[in-house]
Amino acid sequence: MLLIYLIHQIKLKLKYMQCPKCKTEILATAKFCPECGKKVEPQGKTCPNKACKRTGLPHEAMYCPDCGTKLTGGFSSFTETVNGVSFDMVAIEGGSFMMGSNEEEYEKPIHVVTVSDFYLEKTPVTVGQFKSFVESTGYRTTAEMTWGSKIIIYKEDFDCDFLWGEDVNWQCGAGGDIRNEKEFDYPVIHISWDDAIAYCNWLNEESNRLYRLPTEAEWEFAAGGGLESREKFAGTNNKRMVENYSWTSQNSRFMINPVARLRPNKLGLYDMSGNINEWCNDWYALDYYSNSPSINPQGPENAFVCDWRNNKIEQSGAKVIRGGAYNFRNEDCRVSKRYHEEFENTSWDIGFRIALTSIK
């Protein structure tokens, strides 16, 4: 018993953390996990309680799970590094806001929604980030496993052709050309909803967190400025100022642009309007706003869209996409504008960014 007690006291004085892969408790100073051999990145918060000193706690944690001590730093933005690739997560204080608008039928009715604190990635996931995932796992995307992806080819007069590219995948631009190393800071596209979820699952295994896609409500709340302000476009209420914050048909030269080259919105988020559309976690339903929960809505249980050929509402596999793209008009990049796409589809204008739930 004495030996067990002494070992326990020694462990209290040392700083420990969990291996993000196999969850073995290892010294915080370790460079590699002795059990699985994974390289360990510096991570997380340290409990300020001298009798505990638990380390490796998630950045989003506010209390130590071992002793209950409140952690310093509170709810704040942080930088995550996985496989040598870093990205920024912005802390977004939750609250209530008026979701929707009266501009389109499927944006009605305007209704009160409350979202909890969460984190959202500062930019869309880039080609470089997704490349790290593919190289680490050998993952093959929907486009690679099936029929390729939709591409867009512009002509001199800015007329365009929509085509199928059989060999087009996440490595490609909107027109199907392979991106070079200098273009790894472009948002990844030709990504299905399943591909985005697979990326989140991989991040969770590597980081010991719970990354996910944002809900539609979280996306609109963050794009419009959170609690600080409610704006029609991400960054501004003035349609003539949209080009300062968003890549649209007015300033993009009909090309996707690298992330974070224009101004961020009030929360420090880039490219929420324009450049590319972004997958949300929710199924899409035309009338969801009429009966959605007021607190942390997660979307309908099934997707329903309108088949315009016969003017009928039909069940589908549509997921919500938000934001608008580089070839959209300014007014089509409003933060309340709703779009949808079948979850297995890939396209020249759809990517994603990730979210993370705050741990109280």
Describe this entry's structure for a reader:
The protein is of the alpha+beta class and 360 residues long. It folds into two domains: 1-73, no CATH class; 85-126 and 202-357, paralog of FGE (formylglycine-generating enzyme), CATH 3.90.1580. Helices cover 14% and strands 22% of the residues. It has five helices and 17 strands. It has helices spanning 2-13, 127-137, 142-145, 193-207, 216-223; strands spanning 16-18, 25-27, 78-82, 85-92, 95-99, 111-115, 118-121, 149-154, 160-165, 211-212, 277-283, 303-307, 312-316, 318-322, 339-342, 350-351, 355-357. The strands form six sheets. It has a five-stranded antiparallel sheet. A four-stranded mixed sheet has the order 15-14-11-16. The protein starts with a helix and ends with a strand. Residues 1-14 have low confidence and may be disordered.
Strand tally, please?
17
Average of pLDDT: 88
The CATH class of the largest domain turns out to be: Alpha Beta
- Count of discrete structural domains: 2
Reported by name, the CATH topology of the largest domain is: paralog of FGE (formylglycine-generating enzyme)
Structural class by sheet pairing and helices: alpha+beta
Could you give a short account of the major beta sheet?
A: 5 strands, antiparallel
Distance from N terminus to C terminus (CA atoms, Å) equals 35 Å
Shape: globular
Regions with pLDDT < 50 over 5+ consecutive residues? Answer: 1-14
Radius of gyration: 22 Å
